[in-house]
Amino acid sequence: MLIKEYRVVNNCTESEYKIGQLYATAMASKEQTGGGEGVEVLKNEPYEKENGEKGQYTYKIFRLASRVPSFVRAIAPAGALDLYEEAWNAYPYCKTVLKNGYMKDNFSIVYETLHVNNSRGELDNALKISDSDLKKREVVMIDVANDKIDPKDYKPHEDPKLMHSVKTGRGPLTDKDWIKNCEPVMTCYKLVYIEFKWFGLQTKVESFLAKTIHNLFIKFHRQLFCWMDQWYGMSIDDIRALEEQIKKDLDVKRNEGPPIDADSASVAGNSVKTSEGK
Fold this sequence. Notes:
Blueprint: E1 2-10, H1 14-31, E2 38-48, E3 54-63, H2 70-73, E4 83-90, E5 93-99, E6 107-117, H3 131-136, E7 137-142, H4 178-181, E8 186-196, H5 202-226, H6 228-231, H7 236-253, H8 262-272
Helix pairs in contact: 1-5, 1-7, 1-8
Pfam family, one: IP_trans
Protein name: Phosphatidylinositol transfer protein N-terminal domain-containing protein
InterPro entries: PI_transfer (IPR001666), PI_transfer_N (IPR055261), START-like_dom_sf (IPR023393)
């Protein structure tokens, strides 16, 4: 098992991030869907646990077989690569569990996230994990403005070094020390447990998954910042209406054409106006 803690500093408040995260999650789902693959939202509803914890529960299926390594596709039967995601969003704390029906308890990715206002990634154990887990944990700081991304994912309008928010006056993030100097500021502390029990492949696949998650976090938070003028000022009711519309769109898009790009998703999102963060 790998234990990674990704720390993502954002130029927004914790309450602003809640809306931006939900919006960007909804848009990312549209970006990944089409051509028979993508995201299917089965449940998106409020929950309350016996301990009093309240939040939003989501249950999704990710059908993204073409995006897994070829050496895994070669040995896995058809349909075995679907991922099932359960998420409990009790913001500012969120928990997400990803599993696979074929591998059952031999595969899991568990995310625990704490969103902390006025933090710049300095908390040593924000999620209060055990001493034994701390010894295994690797901390990875993410700089959305300066970390490298896959060239195929680069888009100038999703570059924090180029984006200026008209609504908030924030950006572009050209100061090399922007993490130390930006206001407002908050940090997502994302603790990720990655386990893949398959003899001969465990180390290779767990390393691949960790790299993929790292890249996804960079891309997602770059988009969240650069889409600020689209989500800033939205209410939670606006977000729920957007999520409902996108659920309908996803059901259609999975069965037609290739995945749509983020530009098209943004246009669709604006027409609705009034989705870890799930």
